[in-house]
Model the fold of this input.
Amino acid sequence: MKAIEIYETNDGSRFDKKAEAIKYEELCDKCNSINLKLGILARDLESNEYIQHDPEVIKTHLESLWVL
Done:
């Protein structure tokens, strides 16, 4: 028998490799920072949801949103 190690991220997603979990968490953090700038809190969305934004609002924030 052997032990199996699984990495669970803040949203409950699971990964076999630590590097993949870290990369996923970093992407989630970037997405959350963008959403915060647009006034969206993570608790307002389910994992399979998105919000269609007004293009004019995005244009006003485009420079500061360019983090990815």
Notes: Residues 33 and 65 are 8 Å apart (CA to CA). The two ends are 42 Å apart (CA to CA).
